[in-house]
Amino acid sequence: MAETTKKGDGRAVWIGVDIGGTKILAVAFDDRMKPLGEDRKKTKGRSGAEESIQRVAAAVEGAIKAAGLSAKDVAGIGVGCPGPVSMEKGVVLSTPNLCWKDVPLRQILEKKFGVPAAVVNDVDAGVYGEYAMGAGKGARCVFGIFPGTGIGGGCVYEGKIVCGRNTSCFEIGHCRVMPKGPICGCGRRGCLEAVAGRLAISSAAAAAAYRGEAPALLALAGTDLGCIRSGDLAAAIAAGDSEVERVVRRAARWVGCGASLVINLMAPDKVILGGGLVEAMPELYLEEVRKGAMKHVMPSLRGVAEVVVAKLGDRATVTGAAAWARGLAVAE
Amino acid sequence: MAETTKKGDGRAVWIGVDIGGTKILAVAFDDRMKPLGEDRKKTKGRSGAEESIQRVAAAVEGAIKAAGLSAKDVAGIGVGCPGPVSMEKGVVLSTPNLCWKDVPLRQILEKKFGVPAAVVNDVDAGVYGEYAMGAGKGARCVFGIFPGTGIGGGCVYEGKIVCGRNTSCFEIGHCRVMPKGPICGCGRRGCLEAVAGRLAISSAAAAAAYRGEAPALLALAGTDLGCIRSGDLAAAIAAGDSEVERVVRRAARWVGCGASLVINLMAPDKVILGGGLVEAMPELYLEEVRKGAMKHVMPSLRGVAEVVVAKLGDRATVTGAAAWARGLAVAE
User: Fold this and answer.
1) pTM metric for this prediction
2) Options 3.30.420.40, 3.40.50.11690, 3.30.457.10, 3.40.50.720; which CATH number does A135-310 get?
3) Nearest beta carbon to residue B305 from set A163, A165, A178
4) Which residue ranges make up each domain of chain B?
């Protein structure tokens, strides 16, 4: 089928896929990354890798159909996956929520659809999306940091996603920022993720609510960590919960401290902030991350990197995955 | 003159220059980076930029002469300079010891010698030298860390020196590893350099000597920080100064902590340790850096990066500068 796709005839369609813990989103894009149609499926990660891979394929087919196209219009597929991947081999090494292990996803999709496929870490895909179509357009070096339950990072350097030995990289969430800090999910202490991730924020905010110091949050979301969403934190702050504001600002400043490590090392043109917490509170995050970075960046590098908020929201990963697949095809 | 040099005829000669605080070393290399001749001049940094630039030119001429060649044999010149440079513009932005400020060194040398010149930070050049001809040969991603008075870092990724926005980068010495740590020369607290650089080591070692806990060091070098050399530390440890050993091992472990930041971010194939301290105590540094890195790298990245000792010693920068100039010429 690949042979029937002519490059540059305006009909080349690229499919981007974002595999999340609960849902799979597939979007068909034209050659300029304009979305043409999309489909969503539940991930059903617990039903095993085979079941969820079939759902990925079904979402791709659904997006093609929703765009009013057929498989022969597709030039390539890019997939953003949670967890480490081998971009070189097209293999998903492991996924935190899906119980995938060494899944040769590129090969599976290429066999099924007869077009080139690319497998990318979801954060890397998101940063590439912002580089190609969003807040990092045209920058020589972009570092993206996405605070959420984990704190993901990714870097696009001179047009390419930076990747590590056998694996995706930029694990900013597991850089240690507080030597005697709280225990992290990875087993170590004081990782950025443990200090500034969603769990650190919601546990401190819930404790404040429990102590009676965050009445708005208590009314909105209670004290169950599983129920406190980014929007609840933003709403509680807007309603005057100053203790919640203090907690979130502190976490955001730590994100700036984490970003400063990458600024000291890479001196990137842009640092892009994304993810649900940033989307819910963009001004707060921008202000505090800038402050935290300014404090921890070496003096001669202050002002080198512009800190900005992501533009593509939850479309960054699908867009980036599709754009990356397109870029690989052009480079060949 | 550039026109008279034929590429690939075996007569192309590349000059590498290493501008140090006290001396300038220039070496003429053949196309395979075999040294043919060299010259040294005193830097005389305090006599002003113009004087020391003339000395750079004289060292280049001296190396050509020592190799029994003439200027028309030279295909290109690469210069490793202390402090931040703009590789893109060929400008030395500032130098800690030489009082240079925005010196357009590439332009000056190209005008004088009529061949392409390249200006590179000295640590970057050293890492590139190890990548091209030493301990990092052929690796996809090499991170070099050189503990000394400062702690320099550099990265070669897919054959190119990684550079930052308008400047050289990988300022690992100014990444914060100890939030409430000692004051750094840059004005902040707890930078890797302040915790694990030569000054931190020699001041702790001198204090031990003063307290009578390091008799060998006291006999060898006294308690003047300016007189304690890497070789003295190594000799004192060999002679049984266990307190000196403890101080150096601790510093080396912090270097490993610093390296772990880059491993978490870049997942490089190799981490190369270089500089005078490492040369004087290679086994000690290797052991402790590996330990420190292992402790601070996220579990899934343990073992990704091989930690090795540099091979080229004080020839890394000249070799790398020349090899980089050669690489740029080939890429054109």
Assistant:
1) 0.92
2) 3.30.420.40
3) A165
4) 2-122, 135-310
